[in-house]
TrEMBL record:
Keyword presence, Transmembrane helix: yes
Membrane-crossing residue ranges in chain numbering: 43-64
InterPro entries attached to this UniProt entry: Uncharacterised_YqzF
Superkingdom assignment: Bacteria
Organism in which the protein naturally occurs: Aquibacillus koreensis
Pfam name, any one: DUF2627
Keyword set, alphabetical order: Membrane, Transmembrane, Transmembrane helix
Protein name: DUF2627 domain-containing protein
């Protein structure tokens, strides 16, 4: 059986790697190192920024969901219940 903690770790590692690759793309665009699939440094920087934001947003959403489930947000980020 696969441990659920291992699956949760993989769910956090993959977006972390994507965010790290996004930082690398942005850094390389600033220093003039181009990947052959991008035709301009601005496009490479924007793609890197999107990768970074997507990875960071997934990790932040995962942590927020976990904290809401464990009731650790102290009402600040709790979902509004509809009546």
């Amino acid at each position: 059986m696969i441990n659920l903690r291992l699956i949760a770790l993989l769910l956090l590692v993959i977006p972390g790697v994507i965010a790290t690759f996004g930082i690398k793309l942005m850094r390389d665009a600033l220093f003039g190192v181009f990947f052959p699939i991008f035709f301009h440094s601005t496009v490479q920087f924007i793609v890197g920024l999107l990768f970074f934001i997507a990875g960071l947003a997934f990790i932040a959403g995962f942590i927020l969901h976990r904290d809401r489930k464990r009731n650790l947000t102290k009402g600040r980020f709790s979902k509004e219940e509809e009546s």
